[in-house]
């Protein structure tokens, strides 16, 4: 039987580090206020001449190299982003493929916000196991700083830029396979996290630009309550379905949105603090890039080896959510 395997992990973080002290200069906030409510101390913003595709290209190139492949070996490119280079077209994936020298292959974007990487794993797993393709490059990439209202202290301090990439390849060894992926959504909460202007519902106009409707808006308290409940249940369900005990997991790597959410979910489950991998304090919420960026950091520090069992869990605008149980297949 053919399985899908997480063959490589990589990330790219832009150079410009933004501290909480930097935000104290532009909005009514403080390091204490931000840290207490989010756990975030720093985040990184891309330069003015960098777009999401540039971040994705740099992470994607490393992921291909670490998988021991060349660009011509990649059969498909899929990018998850809520901050594409362009609205509508062309897709960011097409630009990334061109940058990497990947020719005449299917490329497309998905928009599932912070759950993007989990959705990417689900798609790649289906394509690989159906034996349609052998090697798929998936990338979560965000330049969210372009979508932030720096007059809104409730949102602008939360997010950062970055990209995380993986090659998903075919294997016959279940011990290095993506064991299970669960994804879901509920559109009744679509207004909890939203970018109001720019689409067909409300095209760009001077009126909505003056009202800052082109920026991310969030109902923080409502999102927090639904996120904690949903994430914890999703983890419990995927572990039970696969007869896996929490002690068998090397790292639980949740979406890095807010330390309070991660702590609340971790407290409802039986993971030790050493099992829960946290990067939100340093990188903020990088949406679709957050899980692969955190996974890559653990990998580069030597904490992840071939065959290690990883559990991913994410929640984002839509509302969307998902979890994945993955045996790392990289060398």
Automatic annotation (TrEMBL):
Gene Ontology MF, one: beta-ketoacyl-acyl-carrier-protein synthase III activity
GO biological process: fatty acid biosynthetic process; secondary metabolite biosynthetic process
Pfam families recorded: ACP_syn_III, ACP_syn_III_C
Domain of life: Bacteria
Domain Beta-ketoacyl-[acyl-carrier-protein] synthase III N-terminal: residue ranges: 108-187
Residues annotated as domain Beta-ketoacyl-[acyl-carrier-protein] synthase III C-terminal: 239-327
Keyword entries, A-Z: Acyltransferase, Cytoplasm, Fatty acid biosynthesis, Fatty acid metabolism, Lipid biosynthesis, Lipid metabolism, Multifunctional enzyme, Transferase
Primary site of residence: cytoplasm
SUPFAM superfamilies associated with the record: Thiolase-like
HAMAP family for the chain: FabH (MF_01815)
Role summary: Catalyzes the condensation reaction of fatty acid synthesis by the addition to an acyl acceptor of two carbons from malonyl-ACP. Catalyzes the first condensation reaction which initiates fatty acid synthesis and may therefore play a role in governing the total rate of fatty acid production. Possesses both acetoacetyl-ACP synthase and acetyl transacylase activities. Its substrate specificity determines the biosynthesis of branched-chain and/or straight-chain of fatty acids.
Family the UniProt entry places it in: Belongs to the thiolase-like superfamily. FabH family.
Name of the featured protein: Beta-ketoacyl-[acyl-carrier-protein] synthase III
Native source species: Helicobacter enhydrae
